Model the fold of this input.
Amino acid sequence: MKILTAYFSAGGYTRSLAKRVAEAAGADLFEIKPVEPYSEADIRWTNPLARCNKEKLGKKEVPIEGRVENFDDYDLILIGFPIWYFTAPNIIESFVKSYDFTGKKVGLFATSGGSDITKAPGTLQPLMKGEIAGAKLFSADANRPEICAWLDTLK
Ligand SMILES: Cc1cc2nc3c(=O)[nH]c(=O)nc-3n(C[C@H](O)[C@H](O)[C@H](O)COP(=O)(O)O)c2cc1C
Done:
């Protein structure tokens, strides 16, 4: 089974988790990076005029730098992100819309400040033809047994 871990991280927590997820899964790693990187001011959600709030309210697409090579070859796609506004950030919607997930299994994982991940499958499933087989919120320092236990539920 060929596995891809694709992740977005603005502050680094999800990045460190995603690296461990990829290692535990024996997966290739792809960072979902916005063409225009987020500055600290861009993600200061307490400011109503911050970029993150404009993107959310305007339902804006977030252009992504580069593409996954040979996406078709993967059987399982693990998508990692920080929870933004109780669900997946806009850039994850943009990522999902950019590829054909037909016939693929998908696992979602996230870090957050306390919100759970239960809303994210409902946000992303309508945008893709793949099957979201599971979604799990981890702490950024989740250990390998914890990660492996979740991966086992997807296969
Ligand atoms: C724009 C924005 C919106 C957020 N919304 C939520 C939220 O709704 N619920 C929550 O628990 N945390 C929220 N957070 C906190 C992040 O989910 C949390 O800090 C996460 O671990 C950051 O991951 P990262 O370092 O990989 O970017 C938000 C953070 C940002 C920047």
